[in-house]
Specification:
Elements lengths: L14 H18 L4 H31 L5
Helix pairs in contact: 1-2
């Protein structure tokens, strides 16, 4: 295929990084990269952003758990 040609891809690829975080983002990237490089990159970035948000969420819960604990 020629460089710069963008083919239509399904919207359902966005579900992979949403439900499987970084693993889904990487999988979607490799599945879509030959058809639409920009969308593939966006899918991978979304997977890492969602994974980072979950990590941040658990870190905050961990810190608040120690801050609210009455046992030392």
């Amino acid at each position: 295929m020629r460089e710069g040609v963008i083919r239509e891809t399904s919207w359902a690829w966005w579900l992979l990084p949403i439900f499987f975080n970084w693993i889904g983002g990487i999988g979607a990237f490799f599945a879509v990269k030959d058809k639409n490089k920009k969308k593939a990159t966006s899918l991978m970035i979304l997977g890492f952003i969602i994974a980072g948000a979950w990590i941040l969420f658990y870190v905050v819960l961990f810190i608040l758990g120690f801050a609210c604990s009455t046992e030392y």
